[in-house]
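Incident log, support desk, overnight shift.

02:14 A customer reports that sequence design results differ from what the structure should imply. Their input is reproduced verbatim below. On-call engineer (initials T.W.) acknowledged and began investigating.
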């Protein structure tokens, strides 16, 4: 498989390109709701200790700006819902990772890692470089700051395999020694690590991303990857092209606003009697590593009111499960095209609770205003073109 970087991508050929497929497993809604209930309990206990004042929540903790792009990621994976397999080393060592368009590094826990699960629950696969004949020492420090704290270790190099046939030689990645900063989201999660699919411009240490190296080493047919997220079952991530059997109609492409995260601009957001026009650019990142959709707190408050959602103690919103049929569609207008999410699909339902899958978050400039996570991507097949710096959307087949 080859890609000639000097030749412009012919979009029509991507559907015919040779593809490598990675199955994405879906974390059950029960677990997401369970995590939400735990946050509610913890927040209530903390508020009681603070004399009734609700604790502040920020996916990025106390960080004041996004200027240090090499060490900060604007989430903590507490709501991540899809994960798949990556192989590192020779002979192969297998890991479950979140394929995350909202970050750019590959990291997995190393043998002896602290706060990396336990034998009873949340058991993690751990990388042992002494067992790999393709390992090469790097040794540079690695630290990345998430909303809940930092994850640290050091860089190494080894062969990384996507599915069965994309083998990236000498990939720089991090062996994590301490994952305590991710807290219970990691301890209880079904993922071992993160494989970032963003751009090298936001990579810690300037490490080239796995997909960028796959392109440079001519391991993919086209500089394209695409997500199909299963609604109530596994999804699929394709590398080197996209699968036209997974969507209806034609892909509509929009150019990136910034090649850092996969960031675009939107024309408008609307639901019921709520409508937000782009008086100034409405920035959004399309993020496979976030289950929910986030937006500015003031806007999400208005949107939630328009669909009948009520705020909870942690700032999330819930709805009456008996009235799901009454929820209006939420529509995002992007590049002049309307992308609607049916009202019933804006809800995560389990254990008798209907959680509105929108959360208010205020990110400091130059961070994005909105994050379009899995709730959006389940409805729309999403194609990421690394070379042309575009994203294509089409209605996903169910």
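02:41 Re-run completed on a clean worker. Output:
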């Amino acid at each position: 498989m080859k890609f000639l970087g000097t030749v412009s991508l012919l979009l029509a050929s991507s559907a015919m390109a040779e593809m490598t497929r990675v199955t994405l497993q879906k974390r059950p809604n029960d677990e997401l709701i369970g995590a939400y209930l735990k946050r509610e309990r913890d927040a209530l206990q903390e508020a009681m200790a603070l004399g009734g004042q609700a604790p502040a929540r920020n996916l990025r903790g106390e960080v004041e700006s996004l200027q240090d792009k090499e060490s900060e990621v604007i989430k903590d994976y507490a709501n991540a819902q899809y994960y798949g397999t990556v192989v590192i080393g020779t002979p192969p060592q297998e890991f479950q990772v979140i394929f995350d368009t909202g970050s750019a590094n590959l990291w997995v826990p190393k043998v002896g890692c602290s706060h990396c699960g336990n034998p009873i629950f949340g058991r993690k696969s751990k990388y042992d470089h002494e067992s790999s004949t393709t390992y090469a020492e790097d040794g540079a420090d690695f630290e990345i700051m998430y909303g809940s704290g930092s994850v640290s270790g050091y860089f190494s190099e080894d062969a990384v395999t996507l599915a069965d046939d994309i083998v990236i030689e000498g990939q720089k990645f991090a062996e994590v020694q301490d994952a305590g900063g991710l807290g219970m989201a990691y301890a209880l999660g079904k993922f071992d690590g993160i494989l970032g699919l963003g751009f090298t411009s936001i990579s810690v240490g300037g490490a080239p991303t796995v997909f960028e190296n796959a392109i440079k080493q001519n391991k993919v047919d086209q500089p394209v990857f695409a997500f199909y997220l299963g609604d109530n079952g596994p999804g699929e991530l394709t590398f080197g092209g996209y699968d036209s059997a997974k969507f209806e109609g034609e892909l509509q492409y929009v150019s990136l606003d910034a090649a850092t995260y996969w960031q675009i601009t939107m024309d408008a957001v609307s639901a019921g009697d709520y409508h937000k026009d782009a008086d100034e650019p409405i920035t959004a990142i399309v993020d496979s590593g976030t289950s929910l959709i986030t937006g500015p707190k003031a806007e999400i408050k208005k949107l939630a009111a328009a669909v009948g959602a009520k705020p909870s103690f942690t700032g999330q919103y819930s709805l009456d499960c008996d009235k799901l049929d009454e929820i209006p569609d939420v529509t995002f207008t992007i590049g002049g095209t309307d992308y609607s999410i049916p009202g019933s699909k804006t809800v995560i339902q389990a254990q008798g609770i209907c959680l509105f899958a929108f959360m208010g978050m205020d990110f400091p400039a130059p961070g994005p205003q909105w994050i379009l996570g899995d709730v959006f991507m389940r409805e729309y097949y999403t194609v990421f073109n690394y070379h042309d710096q575009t994203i294509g959307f089409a209605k996903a087949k169910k």
